[in-house]
Amino acid sequence: MERPFFRFETEEIAERNEAAVRLLRRRTIFAILLVMFFLMVIISRLWFLQISSGQHYTVEAERQRVRIHTVPPPRGHILDRYGREIVTNRPSFNVVMIKEDSYDIGEVLKRLSLVLDEDIENLWARIRTAERSARHIPVRLKEDIDWETLAYLENHKYKFPGIRIEVLPVRTFHYGDLAANSIGYIGSINRKQLESDEEGIYEGGDLIGKRGIEKLREKDLRGEKGKRSTEVNARGFEQRELKQVDPLPGKDIRLTIDAELQSTAEQFMNIGEKAGAIVALEVNSGRVLAAASTPSIHLEDFIGGISQANWDALLNNPKHPLINKVVQASYPPGSTYKIVTALAGLAEGAVDENTVIYCPGYYYFGNRVYRCWKHSGHGPVDIRKAITESCDVYFYQVGQRVGVDKLAEYARKFGLGKRTGIELEFEKSGLIPTREWKKKNRNEVWQEGETLSIAIGQGFNLLTPLQVALMTAATANGGKIYKPSIIESVTTPDGVVTERFKPQLIGQLSKKEQSYLEIIKEGLFDVVHGKRGTARNVRIEGLTIAGKTGTAQVVRVAQYKGMKEQDIPYKYRDHAWFTCYAPADNPEIAVTVLVEHGLHGGSGAGPIARMILAKYFEQHLKDLRQASEGS
Fold this sequence. Notes:
The protein is an alpha+beta fold and 631 residues long. The protein has 3 domains: 4-52; 69-253, Penicillin-binding protein 2a (Domain 2) (Alpha-Beta Complex); 260-295 and 323-354 and 404-627, DD-peptidase/beta-lactamase superfamily (Beta-lactamase, 3-Layer(aba) Sandwich). It contains 21 helices and 23 strands. Strands 2, 3, 4, 5, 10, 18 and 19 form a 7-stranded mixed beta sheet that branches. Strands 12-11-23-22-21 form a 5-stranded antiparallel beta sheet, with helices on both faces. Strand 2 and strand 3 (85-97) form a beta hairpin. Helix 12 packs across helix 15 (404-413) and helix 12 crosses helix 19 (511-529).
C-alpha cells in the first residue's frame, strides 16, 4: 500500500517541473520574438539602405571615393580685323578651398591671410558668396598668385587642409591696354550674377565678363566646361585620375578694329595725357576701325581682382577713365554741327549756294549781341565760305530762318539724337532739342535766341563722338547712314563662322538732300585745302581730305574773358573737335577726334586726325613717294 506522504511529495515535484517548463517556454518564446524583432529591424534597415535609398547612398559613397571637378574652358580669343591677337589666354595659379576637406575653416583662413597678404574679411566674403554651392566645389580665394606663394603653399600643405592650387587660363593682352574700354575685362562672378544664372552654368568663383565685349559676348567667349573624375582617400587627397572630359574652348571674336590704327590713335591721344575720344569708321559699311577712349583703364589691374586702392584711383580720376567716351560721354558738337545747319538751310530754301550774308563779326538779335569767333568778321559769305571759315554769323541767320524744330528734323536724318545701336554698353543717345522737348523737360517756352546757339552746335545740343563720326561718314558717302559695328565675325574652335558682319543701312537722305550734300562737301574740302580753311595744318601731300573743325564752349565764365587760354583752368577750357573723311573725291574712312578741354579743333584735334589718316593711307602715300622719286 502506497504511503500518502510519498504521493504528496511526488505531486509537488511534478507541479514544480511543470512550472519550470512553462517559464522556460515563455522565456524561449520571448527570446524568439526578441530575435525576430531585431531581425525585422535589421531587415527593415537593410531594405531602407539597399533598396529604398540604395541609389542615394551609392551616389554618396561614390562621391566620397570619387570627386568630380569641373574644368573651366579657355575663353575665346579676341582678334583685330586682320587676325592679330589682341586678347588670348595664359595659365594662372589660383588658391581655392574645398570646404568639405577643411576641418576648421576659420583657422585655415587665418593662416592663409598672412601668406596671401589678404584681409581675412575678404577671404570670408568669398566663402559666403559660394555658400549655396556644394561643399566639395572649390571656392576661389585668390587669383593669379606669384611663384613664391605657390611654392610655399605646395610645400606646407599639412598646414592648410582643404586648400588646393588650381591652374586656370586667364587673359593676356598682346597690345597692352589697346581698346581697353571697348574690350573690357573679366572677374569673379558675384552672388547677384549667380542668383540670376537660371541655366545653372556658373559656380562660385567662376570668371565672367564684367565689362565691354567681354561682358556683351560672354555667351560666345565662355565656352563649355569639362569634367575630371579623381579617386580620393579619406583625407580628400587625390590618388588617381579616373576619367576626364575636356572642356570646349570659347568662340573667337574678330573685331572690325585695326590694331595698328587703334594703337596710333591711342598713342597720340596719350601724348600730354589728353582726355577724349577718337572714332574711325569705314564710310561705306559702318565698320569701326578705331575706337579710342582716353585715359583708359589698365587691364592688368583687373587680373585676379582689382585692388581697392586702384579702384578708388579710377573712381576719383577727374578725367574719368572708367567712361568709354566713344559712346558713354556726350558733348556740345560745336561747329561740326554746322553740317546739319547747312543741309537744313539748303533743303528748306532758307539759303541757296549763291546766298550771301555779310559778317561784320557780330549779329544783333533781340536785345543781345551774338559774336562770331572772328571778331573782325568774315565779310561777304556764301555757304561754301561759311563752312570753310566756320562763320558763326552766317549760321546764326540760317538757324533763325529754319527754326529749331527743322534743325532737329535734319539732325535726326543723320542719326543724331538716338543710340546708333553699336555693340558697346551704356551708349548715350545725345540730345537734339526741340520746342516740345524744352516744354516737356523744363516746362519752359523755347526762346528764339536759343535757336542761334543750336545752329552753331552750342546750347542744349549734345552728341557722342561716335554720332559725329556717323554724320561725317554719311556726308562722305552721299547720305547713307550705316549702323556702326565693332564685331567682324565669330568663329567656333573648329573654324566654323557662326556670325559675319554685314553692312546694315539704317537711314538714307533723299535724292534732293543728297544733291545739297555736294555743295557742303565742297566747303568741307576747302576747310583743309582752302587758303583760309580752319584746318590747313591737317593737309597731307598726296591725299585729299575734307573736314570740319569745332570748338565747343564748356561754360561761360566772365572772369576768364581776355585771359590767355593756357592760363584758364583746365576744366573751363573749350573742347576741341575735328571730324573728316578721305580721300575727299572717293571717301574710304571718316575720322572724328574729340579732345576734352583741348581749346581749338584745328590745333587741338586736327593734328591727331592727320596722324591717323597718315597711318591708314601709309602704303598709298609710300607708293606715291616711290612713284614720284622714280619719275
